[in-house]
Amino acid sequence: MGKLEFASRTSVEQIEEGYELVPKFGPDGLMPCITSDASTGEVLMLGWMNTEALRLTIETGEAHYFSRARQVLWRKGATSGLVQNIVEARIDDDQDAIWLRVEVAGSGASCHVGYRSCFYRAVPLGAKAGQPLVYLEGDKTFDPGEVYGDVPNPTQI
Amino acid sequence: MGKLEFASRTSVEQIEEGYELVPKFGPDGLMPCITSDASTGEVLMLGWMNTEALRLTIETGEAHYFSRARQVLWRKGATSGLVQNIVEARIDDDQDAIWLRVEVAGSGASCHVGYRSCFYRAVPLGAKAGQPLVYLEGDKTFDPGEVYGDVPNPTQI
């Protein structure tokens, strides 16, 4: 199979009303990717893709990202086995963000901290603004120390 | 009510395992925000927030964004009436992305092109990579020309 190539962006009409994938990456060469569980609709993570990650994701049907912390292309699940198989990929109106609906292999988790979703804490709103975050999941689904070993934690202060 | 203030980020443990909201904004001062329909789980849009947009969102329970095209703070629905009332807000593990589950006022649409979701086109995968995008919604829910009039289109080539 030949390498998938992306066409140039030429007009608002082409971008918003067309049938051609003409993705736009930010000044850092990256595009945000929303990844949700295809069956529950729960958002699992917000990742980033460069051109190559987007191309591999589309060609293989498995989510690939670009790690900003490690500055490398990253096949999700390469270390943890928690591969994300894509049920549906969608591009947004101005084609600078992508949404993947996935089925996750293994335990179904997607968060390096050990939870199912990276979004495991709710932010109190309105009259409760400023109150402590609320944990929404119970126990972690895996022990990050066992799974990742000496791999550096990607969270940056 | 006093202005909500965000604490400083001091450790990975504080950020990932704590109860304190310590958001991180990118080099451009912005954080990506995923907004989904609270009842269907459909992702409606990917927006951006600066500190003030995040603060107002949390304090008012209505989604506020920062428009990168217009470089202004933006209360969603101010022009269109399609206000997003937040059912739940969640922060991710490293606290540099937020997810809003919302109920949208009026027609329920969130996309300036006129569709319900900004993600109205699917990207063919695998053996079908490179084939035309697939439109997932039927007719537009509103006529953007009528609603926005002379407001410049935010899509940038």
From TrEMBL, chains A, B:
GO biological process: L-histidine biosynthetic process
Domain annotation Phosphoribosyl-AMP cyclohydrolase: ranges: 45-120
InterPro entries the UniProt entry points to: PRib_AMP_CycHydrolase_dom, PRib_AMP_CycHydrolase_sf
EC class: hydrolase
Keywords: Amino-acid biosynthesis, Histidine biosynthesis, Hydrolase
One example GO MF annotation: phosphoribosyl-ATP diphosphatase activity
Pfam assignment, any one: PRA-CH
E.C. number: 3.5.4.19, 3.6.1.31
Reaction it catalyzes: 1-(5-phospho-beta-D-ribosyl)-ATP + H2O = 1-(5-phospho-beta-D-ribosyl)-5'-AMP + diphosphate + H(+); 1-(5-phospho-beta-D-ribosyl)-5'-AMP + H2O = 1-(5-phospho-beta-D-ribosyl)-5-[(5-phospho-beta-D-ribosylamino)methylideneamino]imidazole-4-carboxamide
Pathway: Amino-acid biosynthesis; L-histidine biosynthesis; L-histidine from 5-phospho-alpha-D-ribose 1-diphosphate: step 2/9; Amino-acid biosynthesis; L-histidine biosynthesis; L-histidine from 5-phospho-alpha-D-ribose 1-diphosphate: step 3/9
Family statement drawn from the similarity comment of this UniProt entry: In the N-terminal section; belongs to the PRA-CH family. In the C-terminal section; belongs to the PRA-PH family.
Designated name of the protein: Histidine biosynthesis bifunctional protein HisIE
Native species: Roseivivax halotolerans
